[in-house]
Amino acid sequence: MTEVLPKRITKEIERLMNDPAPGIKAVPFEDNLRYFDVVMAGPTQSPFQGGEFKLELFLPGGYPMEPPKVRFLTKIYHPNIDKLGRICLDILKDKWSPALQIRTVLLSIQALLSAPNPDDPLDNNVAQHWKDNEKDAIATAAAWTSQYALPGK
Fold first, then answer.
1. Active-site pick, 41, 55, 87, 88
2. Catalytic annotation on 88?
3. 28 pairs with which residues across the strands?
4. Angstrom distance (rounded) from CA 23 to CA 30
5. How far apart are CA 34 and CA 58, in angstroms?
6. Which pLDDT tens digit goes with each residue over 90-137?
7. CATH number assigned to the domain covering 7-148
8. Could you tell me which residues come within 8 angstroms of residue 89 by beta carbon, excluding any fewer than 6 positions away?
9. Where is the UBC core domain positioned along the sequence (predicted)?
């Protein structure tokens, strides 16, 4: 028996299906509509351009009063994303608001790819690399994108 979802989640799923955010595809699992497979295109003008990043998104029982859980499944070289794929983003933590939606969260993550913040890192080594030699860090991020995130990998 599948869980009956709150109307809000059903509406958000419908919107994601009928009006997907540019460069983001989020599809709920058939057997558990609280879990989503997400594929996010790397933003243009970023070292992640051309990449397709797989993420998982889960809506906990307390959603929308608590934020969704999101993590990268594709390896990525980014100061705000650690080796386990966890994401350092304020709206996934203390700045969460029930007014936000799945779509907003995914667009915010995509924006984070365009604008890494080494001053609020989750991976200190990557952040230090970004601060010490941004050009080299961006080259490393682009190389990882080619190695791990090209479509078909």
1. 88
2. yes
3. 36
4. 22
5. 6
6. 999 999 999 999 999 999 999 999 999 999 999 999 999 999 999 999
7. 3.10.110.10
8. 80, 108, 109, 112
9. 4-150
**Hey, what are 1's tokens?**
């028996």
- Cut 0.90: pTM above it: yes
Buried b / exposed e across 19-39, counting CB within 10 Å, b at 16+? eebebbbbebeeeebbebebb
Phi-psi region of 19 (alpha: psi -120 to 50; beta: other; left: phi over 0): beta
- The Cα 145–Cα 136 span in angstroms is 14
Q: Where are the domains of the chain?
A: 7-148
Asked if residue 43 lies in contact with residue 49, where contact means CB atoms within 8 angstroms, the answer is yes
| Residues in contact with 81: Cβ distance below 8 Å, sequence separation at least 6, in sequence order | 72, 87, 88, 122, 123
